[in-house]
Amino acid sequence: MCKNINTSLKTSTCDCRPRWRTKRAAPAHRTSSISGMEEEGARPLFSFGVIADIQYADIDDGYNFVCTRRRYYRHSLKLLRRASDSWKSESPRPSFVLQLGDIIDGFNKKHDASRKALDAVLRELNNDGAAAVHHVWGNHEFYNFSREELSASALNSKGVCGAEEGAAGDSYWYDFSPRSERYGQALRLLLEHNDNEELNNPPGLEQRFVKFNGGFSQDQLQWLDRLLTISDEKHEKVTIVSHLPVHPSSSDPICLAWNYDEVLSVLHSHKCVVCFMAGHDHDGGYHKDFYGIHYLTFEGVIETPPEQDAFGTVYVYEDKMILKGHGRVASRILQYL
Ligand SMILES: Nc1ccn([C@@H]2O[C@H](COP(=O)(O)OP(=O)(O)OC[C@H](O)CO)[C@@H](O)[C@H]2O)c(=O)n1
Q1: For a FRET experiment, which of 48, 243, 299, 325 has its CA 20 to 30 Å from that of 281?
Q2: Nearest residue by C-alpha to atom 17 in ligand 1
Q3: Which residue, 177, 202, 180, 172, is CA-closest to 18?
Q4: pLDDT tens digits, residue range 174-213?
Q5: pLDDT at residue 135 above 80?
Q6: Which segments cross the bilayer (predicted)?
């Protein structure tokens, strides 16, 4: 749902100067047990897989911009294979997989390898009859492809496993190509809050106003509000997926959507929302707010060492969801109010 503005790539070399403050030290709250899954006795209604920030590139390991985290560009494909194999081994298999954005890294563009890298990742995801995949577009999608290319690609999940046409179509309606009106709006907003020459350097207090983030337009917020109103009326339970996190307690401040507060206002005005899933912050995070909404930020594959994993399977029940995490992703019981 959430899209990021396009930006040019910097070089792969890292001079290790601290360019912005790094993230919080305290780990997110973790639920220590998923015993509810066994105690429940009932079978889940359905399950789905979740994976975030694969950022595959056929290049040697590197680092994030501020050189605080190693990035395992090539290994990310192997971690995806392990996730895919795990989902395939489950019985019953997950109904679908959520890919939360940044499926390939922006460095592919520099190496003219965007299409090849995407094909390699999709081969793993679609491996031998695996579950259908819903793709979210993150900032790295826009480093690699134009909006038109994305819409025409397999990353357009319109129609995947029963998605409603309108909803799926709307979810990709954002045009952040440099020439677009929306790009201009986004850039003006960014410049109002960030006066650094390098717009990926965060301003003092409002760290999220950097170029690799983005925001939700009024159109998108109204669209979300409309859909949630319908879900309220139908007494549905809604999980929203986005590349960018929206709750400050579920993410490093530098990774938050610019207007996260406006998104939270919409979520809080509806009783149907039970969960908000995001990626982008590779360290992950979790928070349950006063309204009982669970904000899950999934740990990124790209910064997960080769011997570890970073994916999950969510089992959906009438009264809760149970996340069975693998490797860096913690298992949690997500009880509805
Ligand atoms: N080695 C690198 C890595 C990145 N950059 C540039 O830095 C900007 C932001 O990095 P990006 O890779 O887009 O960030 P992610 O979306 O992967 O992660 C966001 C949070 O940091 C997660 O914690 C961008 O302009 C890159 O090109 C670089 O120059 N050198």
Answers
A1: 48
A2: 280
A3: 202
A4: 333 355 777 888 899 999 889 888 888 888 668 888 999 9
A5: yes
A6: none
User: Which ligand 1 atom lies nearest to the CA of residue 10?
Assistant: 29
Helix axes 114-125, 76-89, angle to 10 degrees: 20
State the CATH architecture for 35-335. 4-Layer Sandwich (3.60)
CA of 177 to the centre of ligand 1 (A): 18
151 close to ligand 1 (CB < 6 Angstrom): no
Mean pLDDT (whole number) for 26-42:
47
Q: Which atom of ligand 1 is closest in space to residue 53's alpha carbon? A: 17
- How many whole angstroms from 336 Cα to the centroid of ligand 1? 35
Sequence spans of domains, the chain: 35-335
Task: Establish whether residue 24 lines the binding site of ligand 1, counting it when its CB lies within 6 angstroms of any ligand atom.
Answer: no
Q: Is the CB of residue 133 below 6 angstroms from any atom belonging to ligand 1?
A: no
The secondary structure element, H or E, covering residue 302 is: none
Predicted confidence (pLDDT) at residue 161 exceeds the cutoff of 80: no
**Distances, alpha carbon 185 to alpha carbons 123, 193, 331, in Å:** 36, 13, 39
Nearest to 75 by CA among 119, 35, 121, 30: 121
Give the CA dihedral 90, 93, 95, 100, nearest 10 degrees.
40
